[in-house]
Amino acid sequence: METLAFQGVVGLSMAMYLWLISAGLTIIFGVLGVINFAHGSLFMLGAYLAFTFYGLLGWNFWLAIILSLAGTAVVGWVMERFFLRYLYGVDEAYQLLLTFGFILILDDAVKMIWGGVFRIPDIPAFLEGHWSVFGRPFPVYNAFIIAAGIVVGIVLWLGFERTWWGRTVRATASDREMANAIGVNVPRVFSGVFMLGAMLAALGGALGTPVRVVSPGLGAAMIIQAFVITVIGGLGNLKGAFVGSLIVGVLSAYGTLLFPVFELALIYLIMAVVLLVRPQGLFAR
Amino acid sequence: MTEYLLETKGLRKTFGRLAAVAGVSLGLTEGTLAAVIGPNGAGKTTLINLLTGLLTPDTGTVRFKGEDITRVPSHGRVRRGLSRSFQIMNIFPNLTVRQNLLLPALSRRGRNLHAVARLEDETGANAEAEELLREIGLWDHRGARAGALSHGDQRLLELGIAVGTRPKLCFLDEPCAGMNPIERQTVLGLMRKLSGQRRTTFVIVEHDMDVVFSLAERIVVMNHGEVLADGTPAEIRENRVVRETYLGAEV
Amino acid sequence: MGEGPVASPGRRRIVTPGRSAIGGLVLALLLLPLVGGQYAQYVAIQVLILSLFALGFNILFGYTGLLSFGQAGFYAVGAYGCAKLLLLTPSLLFGVVGGTLLAGAAALVLGVLCIRHTRIYFSMLTLAFGMMIFSMALKWRDFTGGDDGLVGIPRAPLEIPGLVSVSMASMGRYYYFVLAVSLVAIAIAYRLVHSPLGLTFQGIRDSEGRMAFTGVSVRTYRLIAFVIAGLYAGLAGALLPALENTVTPPVAHWTTSADPVLATLLGGIQAFAGPIVGAFLYFMIKDVIVRFTEYWLIWLGIIVVVLVMGFRGGVVSLATARWRVHRPGREGA
Ligand SMILES: Nc1ncnc2c1ncn2[C@@H]1O[C@H](COP(=O)(O)OP(=O)(O)OP(=O)(O)O)[C@@H](O)[C@H]1O
Ligand SMILES: [Mg+2]
Fold it and tell me: What is the CATH number of the domain that holds B200?
């Protein structure tokens, strides 16, 4: 019983990485109408950059995260500004194919630059240690991840609902022509949103560096889970992304415990059930 | 009690808080060419979408030839003898004009699944498509890519696809929109011909009052999702409510 | 509103190559073992396998308008299925047919889930389910051998009980077997896309809404296209174990799903022969690139990006653009 409860809490922190990447994915889709297949690769890039600054160069943890976000945002900007932008008018299949091409490029690029698998750097001192949760040690770092995920959720919600910027983005999302007519610089909003999405992915990747190994396969693994989450939660829906992340994160944690061999099969099973019962996802717009 | 070809009871469809169709009960009689009119946003297209299965109603029923088809998907309704054209042009743009008309002909014969037959060998369907090509006046364009036709020709082609399934009842959503007078005559001529020869009953949505009053034997006026008036052209012309709210000083 | 026509990947009509060109090509393929050595035959088999793989993919993408990123899943089912059968009973035909049918069955089951959606959602689902098969290949050790895969798969003789038994020990023999199977499969696909069923697929690609209103259950036909693509992927995969004598999880990975995508893009989605031409080009390009660098995927990615940005018609449409101009007024019914 205690093990089950503890595993649930571990799953919660896993859910937060998933939440960060699927939030970016779903926001980009909501505004640009594009699914960025390379979003997992941006997550991976964020992880590699943070690992470089924090793990290899030994810089300050926060600085490493900020630099990783900035670096990934630049890559995202290049992807949107110089490539994706020219494909908004053509069939969306080509947008998918383009971002599919980006996965191949980014995955191999990190292999070229960083080589194979790495050791895990130490957890920053102020986040070390354990608390006692349900009589079991619960790492402070996991608590930090959960808090970070929730804070990001609140900031995003406030940003979209309460700020002028958020209203502009929502207006653009619901009607591009109209937004353009009332003077919104739509291309700039698109670039901005794509960069925001890229940074969210990078944040997920960067926050994970002290606890998980970065490897070139990370991006693909993450994007698949993010897809499962958006299918469960409903595409383009932030609340759906959050709840979907919780479901997938927590259930994967139990899956590892209960059926180690078919841990992955479990989330596909959930996806299949949601598809059959609610094809548009739990929180479809 | 008359036996209606198509009958609805309390049909209702809301989008968010807007009741696009707010409780419509109608009976359409075989052989009577009806027109649905009403201002923009009155719910005409939504009504047709409900009748043809593109949308499912929140409440209410649709019966066709006595059978309840409320839950029958679009393709099932087509097989039972319903058909339609779309307000926003909907053809197969990358196929040839001929292939566009071949598709309903194949479907009508249940030939879609045939994976080894050559298209050229589908003699029955080909003959039917060719007849249609002549009827809609696109014979000379039969080899052209449908998407490359002029706007008016594309609309004619869509009409051709719609009647190509040989429906009992065919809804045409603004079939003459954006057409020149000659093309318009082709449309009206074809409708008259098929009404006579194949006993197809047409229901049109149309904004052009000349077309409506010259063609329709019955007019249904809609506004705010409701049926405002329903009767012969003469009755509608005399209807005070309609005159005031919709026709204004025009007629 | 759900009324507008569905955007389609195929902007133009499907074009077909000349007869003489096909005859010449088949002749060249038949003579290949006489001039080329083992390696040439090995590469030729790979090209044929990818041709089948891509051809099926394009029935789904170019003809039906559904972009799948998970075809490697069915490719892997074909490969693992055939390998298992060959390990069970050494009969090539049994293995290949069995692997193909297993892939078809997998496509039927997953297809029911995937074709509930189109466009972006469909692409995401296929990628996810494809990776589900990858994770099974990796984790279901008892059946798939996990990381190590299945090894020691015999290149079993071609046996038709009571009729013939042809040894497949030499590469040349196996090449002719693969060639024969491929030509038959290509001919079937050609016939199929020019049949009422093929036209139905193209109608769905151009406008699902209009297609439904010709009285056709669009979902059913999407599923049919999905199963056909799965069968072709399965057949392609089933030809693999006897060639390599081993099957490992990477055959199921999404990077393998990229192969038919790229071959089709290279050759052109609008032409029937596009995926076949593309499969050939794919191996040419790969052969050149791997001589210079181990980072082959990055180049693959760059090629995808360049093709998508600038050459969406692929090679075949560039080549046939002239050809079509010279033959005006031909009717494509
Ligand atoms: N899918 C939808 N989602 C939300 N609102 C819709 C949808 N379809 C129609 N509406 C709304 O329902 C109302 C009725 O629309 P409908 O298209 O049926 O009108 P109409 O009578 O055909 O108008 P028009 O003459 O302009 O074609 C409109 O206010 C429209 O905005
Ligand atoms: Mg309308």
Answer: 3.40.50.300
**What CA–CA distance (Å, rounded) separates B211 from B194?**
17
- Burial class from Cβ neighbours inside 10 Å (0-12, 13-18, 19+) for residue A240 reads buried
pLDDT of the residue at B9: 92
- R_g of chain A, CA atoms, integer Å: 19
Please say if the pLDDT value at position B230 is more than 70: yes
Q: What range does the domain containing A113 cover?
A: 16-120+127-277
- The reply to whether A34 falls in a domain is yes
SS3 assignment, position B150: coil
Q: Do C212 and B126 touch (CB under 8 A)?
A: no
- Total H helices, total E strands in chain A: 11, 2
Q: C14 in a domain, yes or no? A: no
Q: Which residue carries 């490969």 as its tokens?
A: C79
Number of domains in chain C: 1
Beta bridge partners of B34: B203, B218
Q: What is the pLDDT at residue C186? A: 95
Amino acid at B227: V
Token pair 């308008």: residue = C65
B246 lines ligand 1 (CB under 6 A): no
Look at residue C308 and tell me if it is in a domain: no
Does C210 score more than 50 pLDDT? yes
Whether residue A284 is contained in a domain is answered as no
The Cα of B239 is separated from the nearest Cα of chain C by a number of Å equal to 33
CA A123 – CA A127 distance, rounded (Å)? 7
Q: Do C and A touch, counting CB pairs below 8 Å (3 needed)?
A: yes
Predicted structure pTM score: 0.89
Percentage of chain C modeled with pLDDT above 70? 88
**pLDDT-based confidence at B2, cuts 50/70/90?**
low
Element (H, E) at A60: none
pLDDT digits 0-9 by tens, C89-120? 888 999 999 999 999 999 999 999 888 887 88
Query: Complex ipTM, two decimals?
Result: 0.91
Ligand 2 centroid from CA B41, angstroms: 7
What stretch of H or E contains A250? Answer: helix A238-258
Our count of domains for chain A comes to: 1
pLDDT at B251 exceeding the cut of 60: no
In a domain, B42, yes or no: yes
Q: Is residue C263 part of a domain?
A: no
Angle at B221 between CA B218 and CA B223, to 5 degrees: 165
What pLDDT score was predicted for residue B247? Answer: 56
Q: Does the CA dihedral A109-A112-A117-A122 come out positive or negative?
A: negative
Nearest 5 degrees, angle CA B243-CA B246-CA B249? 55
Alpha carbons A187 and B209: distance in angstroms, whole number: 43
pLDDT of residue B13: 93
User: What pLDDT, in 10s, does the model give residues A58-116?
Assistant: 888 899 999 999 999 999 999 999 999 998 878 888 888 899 899 989 988 998 888 86
Number of domains in chain B: 1
Sheet harboring B18-28: ordered strands across? B18-28, B6-15, B59-64, B67-68
Q: Which of C195, C202, C317 to mutate to test the interface with B (most CBs of B within 10 A)?
A: C195
Band the pLDDT of C229: cuts 50, 70, 90.
very high
* C211 has a pLDDT exceeding 90: yes
Distance from C-alpha of B31 to C-alpha of B196, rounded to nearest angstrom: 9
Residue-wise pLDDT tens digits, A131-146: 776 677 778 888 899 9
Of ligand 1's listed atoms, the one at least distance from the Cα of B38 is: 21
DSSP state of C252: G
Report the nearest atom of ligand 1 relative to the CA of C2.
1
- Beta-sheet pairing, B169-173 with B201-205: parallel
Q: Is residue A3 part of a domain?
A: no
On chain A, the residues whose CB falls within 8 A of the CB of C61 are 93
Range of the domain at C247: 20-252
Give yes or no for a contact between A41 and A107, defined as CB atoms under 8 angstroms apart.
Answer: yes
